[in-house]
Model the fold of this input.
Amino acid sequence: MTRRIALLPGDGIGPEVLAAARRVLEAVAQRRSTDFEFDEVSIGGIAIDETGSSLPQESLRQCEAADALLLGAVGGPEWSDPTASVRPEQGLLDLRQHFGLFANLRPIPVFSALMDFAPLRSDLLEKVDILFVRELTGGLYFGDRHEQGDGDFAYDTMAYSVAEVERVAHVAFKAARGRRGKLTSVDKANVLASMRLWRRVVEGIAPQYPDVELEHLLVDACAMHLMRSPGAFDVVLAGNLFGDILSDEASILSGSLGMLPSASLGEGSFGLFEPVHGSAPDIAGKGIANPIGAILSAAMLLRFSLGLEDEAAAIEAAVLGAIDAGLRTADLAAPGDRGASTSEATEAVLDRL
Done:
């Protein structure tokens, strides 16, 4: 059976890291007797330059025909004007909304061989393995009232419905049930009405998961505890804005943002998979971008959208083996060491696949 994967390289280092992930997927297909068909799709700043839209209709059509989407990165200084009517990030937001991808999974593993690259003491990083579940299509980013204007006043609205909170909370509870059985729900219920609804709905769902320990943390307290005692967390559930900020904060626990993948899922198996790093225009075209986040995103694609658990696990084991054997890209290299190039890092993974 042939599986169709839409590749959305995007901007900056996106094309470079996505090319690496494609090579790994092609190796999986060859060695595991699995067939993949790839369609390259335009999105982000490059799509704006080509068509005037960050997600052209032809791109959306190609995505609709795919079994899963693999994205590189979008954005760059050429399109950084926040007042522009069309911005690269809009294409990504439109994809999430169009396909109903309401749950963003961001795993934060700590690789023992990379502990020295994190800004925290190594003893604080022992046994750290966090999964963020971020609500992705509601909250402040998708509130129905926004006012930018040219004057001295602007506003956005943070809105959540019971149904929106329920569906993402179920994803988080189920994830915790399959891990260490603890769920931390993050809100700002002491100040925000939408967050009081969030806490009430999560609390109401908890009895359906008696094997999961639930705790509530205010977002500011959670930000502190992530740096002070990260090993105490298992699954962290948060709204769109708070989940975005906290998962980026926690990414430093792995040593580099370039190491981390993500999955955006809806009700079915279809999903959008992407490294959590940005487009990094300052290093684009230099061949030094870290491809591991994109490669691990490809592994998540195989697991969640295509049901290929063995193949996903093989990629993850190959990445771990390469890191344990000393693989260090430029973002992780010691002072004076150039680090492995994007292609060298990819070969290191392929050698161990």
Remarks:
- The two ends are 22 Å apart (CA to CA).
- The longest helix spans residues 14-32.
- DSSP finds twelve helices and twelve strands in the chain.
